[in-house]
Amino acid sequence: VIPFRLLFMPNYPLEEMLTNIKAWGKGVDDFLRGKNDYLKFDYLVRTVYDEDGNDVYQFFKWYSLCQLFLEKEHETELDWKLPNFLDLRYSVKEREQMAVLFRKMRNKIAHGDFRKLEYLIEEYAKTFMDGKFDFDYSEFSRKNWAIQNAMFKLMDAVKHMIHLSFTNRNVIDSIKKQGENKSSLFYIKPKDSDIVKYLKTMNEDISE
Q: How far is residue 194's CA from residue 146's CA, in Å, rounded to a whole number?
């Protein structure tokens, strides 16, 4: 199935377009298994559609959507579940560090501790942006560039989760069902996992 955004491109073969529209429709039908799924779908459409702003509250929203897909009981589960959906150009260790930072940033926003949030944002900028990102301070402050950069990474992760929910829902459901039992962690192995192959394939298409 091609990315949804490509379905209606000019000069796209009609027959192939119809085949892919039907495939996407089947994915939505497979996702809607009960009333709660209809309500979740409605929530997702409304929430994802509202993309105004690039501030800490948008970051909070996108992290909350990650929780919607991945969290079973405790938010700390995302420390090891979320790295599977983050940018695969980073190492596993870097993605794990990024996931922990994102959780801490989300909590500081939720608790109104914006002073400590400032330190976490700067830690993110130093760790994942310095030397790799061109900060244009005539457009945004260093803090705003960092929070936007983090927010876009969460947006891409959520897009992966949504796409997986419509194409292979059993996988995303199995990830969510994993609890805090360290002996039964769901962790994607880089060489032999279908989901890693999926993420590598979708990374360029979905992240745009």
A: 32
- Contacts for 185 with CB less than 8 Å, ≥ 6 apart: 80, 178
With CA atoms as reference, report the closest residue to 30 among 156, 163, 155: 163
Q: How far apart are the first and last CA of the chain?
A: 17
Contacts for 24 with CB less than 8 Å, ≥ 6 apart = 1, 4, 7, 166
Return the structure tokens found at 23. 């495939």
Mean pLDDT by 10 residues, the chain (208 residues): 58 75 80 82 77 80 93 90 90 93 95 94 94 87 92 92 84 80 45 54 48
Q: Quote the CA–CA distance of 103 and 109 in Å, as a whole number.
A: 10
83 vs 188: CA distance, rounded Å: 9
Structure tokens at 118: 């400032």
Could you tell me if 56 and 117 are in contact, meaning their C-beta atoms sit under 8 angstroms apart?
A: yes
Whole-Å CA distances, 58 to 122, 144, 150, 152: 18, 12, 10, 10
Rounded to a whole number of angstroms, the CA Rg of the chain reads: 18
Determine what percent of the chain falls in helix, strand and coil, rounding each to the nearest 5.
70, 0, 30
Tally of CA atoms within 13 A in the half-sphere of 158 that contains its CB: 22
- CB of 199 within 8 A of CB of 189? no
- The encoded tokens of residue 21 equal 């529209």
